[in-house]
Amino acid sequence: MRHTIKPSVAPLENRFPIHWFGRLWKSCAAITRKIKARRSGIHLALVFLALIIIPSGLLTYFSWRAIENEKLLSQERLKESYRQFARLAGREIDNELAKTDERWIFQVEEILKAGKTIPPLEEFDRLVRNQSLIAACFLLTAPGKVVYPPGLSLHEEKSSPESWEKESYALEHETFDKLVARGEELEYRVNDLDGAIAAYREIPATVSNPRLWAIAESYVGRALTKKSEWERALAIFQSLLAKHPNERDLNGMYLRFLAQYQIAVCLENLERDQEAIEMLLRLNQDLLERSDAINALQFSFFFEQIRSLTPRLLTSPRVSNPTSFKIQFDSLAAQDKKRLSQRYFLQLLERNLEKMVIKRKRYKAEFSYISDEAENGPYLLACFPLPDLSDMYVNGLLGLQIDLQQLTQELFPRILPNLKFSEQVTLAILNEKGDYVLGATKPFRNHIAVQSLAAPFDFWQVAIYLGDEQGEPQKLDFRTTLWLWLILLLLASILFGAYLFIRHARRQAHLSQMKSNFVSNVSHELRTPLASVKMFAELMDLQLAGNSAPPSDFKAHAQQYLGIICRECDRLGRLIENVLSYSMIERGANQYQFEYENPSAILATAVESFRPHAEARGFLVEVEIAEDLPELRMDADAILQVMLNLLSNAVKYSDEVKEILVRAYRAGPVVKVEVADRGIGIDPTEAAKIFDDFYRVDQRLSSHKQGGMGLGLTLARHIVCAHGGDISLHSEPGKGSTFIFTLPIPAEEELHHKTPVNEQRGSAGHIVHQAEMEQ
Questions:
Q1: The pTM is what?
Q2: What end-to-end distance do the CA atoms of the chain give, in Å?
């Protein structure tokens, strides 16, 4: 059904009562005070953040750090107790090892009686036989002569032993050192290779030691290879290999290995690759054969040199049958280095003796030790010097190879069980690399404390391990656990409270900003209609106060002016009504007068009263209201205000298509009212906010054109909810918006008792009786 009811125009004084201004300004003042109070609340929030949350967070952090530090200190104290126990265990083992030292020291002193520099060799046989911890015995006299065991020799003897016992032995080494220093200065710094060769060639003429001759020849050959004089260098190294096959350099390395390798290098550069590969194969065989007389580092050095040179020679076209050579090299590479033999220990003792003799070290009857790590474990040599005929200087050296495996089997099983800290703590002996040597059980986790033994057994370490129970992660005690839970609870409550507080503060700050905008909008919205009313009233006053008679068309113009004044008064009235209603809602004093009314008539009245305003702006307003709508229990003025707010909203947010449709129909237990437009629509992200206080959707259209204060939809929602209904929005950007609100239909039995009831509903939803609505 379409209605064409003409609205009645109320007098100006009824449309715009003057006493509303006072109520309006009081409401604006109250809202302004609330805004200031909200700003004060934000300041209090900042103070709360600075004085409560931050100190609480710091308290929580420092409490947590204190607990963590206490745990770390407790663990460190426990580790320190284990380290102390490791030191005590190491000291106890050192004492037992010292007692073991005394056993062989005493026996050696018995053999080396006063006045006998070289005791009978049978005494050494008896010593090795009776003392289980002595694996071998060695006796050397200067110049490196092996007295025991008999049958072993270290050097070629080309001069009489007597010559070595003289002071010229030390003088020869001094002369050798000076000539070598001069030659190396010329070779490395000055790059005068000829001068270096001349300095090296002076050595054989000034010393009589064959070992020094061999070393000097190796230096000459080295300088010749730097000059790329391969023929002369080849001759030098071939001579060195032939004349001095058993001599060693100052580091104990066989010179024969160096000579063979350099011969292969020289032959390669002379393009005699067949001979070079044969010499390299000979070097590889010789290296494995004598590997028991050199240490692992020396063996690895020459083995790597062979591996780097072999591929080049095997790919040479001058080598016949390279496959056969490759098979032989692969077979040699698969062989392991031999364990160190007595020849290696003899050369170690010889180097020590040589240093003592050269330095003219005075004789002192005490043991010294030589120890190092070999491929099959550590070794230990106990050295005892022998005096010369004057009993002043060292002229010999007695060496004892200690059987470390036998020592660990005899000593440690006897000592370790006596070192008890607790049932969960176990001890083990480790080598220098940290590998397990001996213990009750082989550990399967890292040690917590370690202590090296005293020299000469410093290649061993005492390690402390924890058993299964101690290895598990330690549980926190009840007190620490309780503190942790309290701290976590405090932190969680502070964070949750801070979250709620900040969320509330942000909402209030946003609300305060919207209210600030509201005050500004109120000023603007009041000023605009008042200015229009004043302007047209003054214009009519001027025309009436003129000396001449009013113009003939004055009546037509007066009607036009009065129409504009009436519309502006209506606009101002709606504005003031919204502000007053919102003010009462905020104070909790909003009042409604509920009576049974015909919704069709009220909705039609609202539309027709708004139609002139809409049509003046070019809008087409269509109405579709069902005729059979039941009477509803409502406040007619409040529902009129809702309709006017929704229609005004439709006008504000319509742009090119100016059409408004109002529909009302029954939908089950409620009456649905729809106000639809074809305006700019509302973005879905903002649809949930439009019913908030002071919220305005200012998109596409200017805020000047839209006007309003952001209270219309807020009041509409409050009024509809007070009637027990609901209000919602369906909108699509660019296609328009539809506001739908529902009003509940009373039960059938209530329709028989249509007694008017004056009620009051507070902002919190409580219903109270009231005689009449406050004007």
A1: 0.51
A2: 35
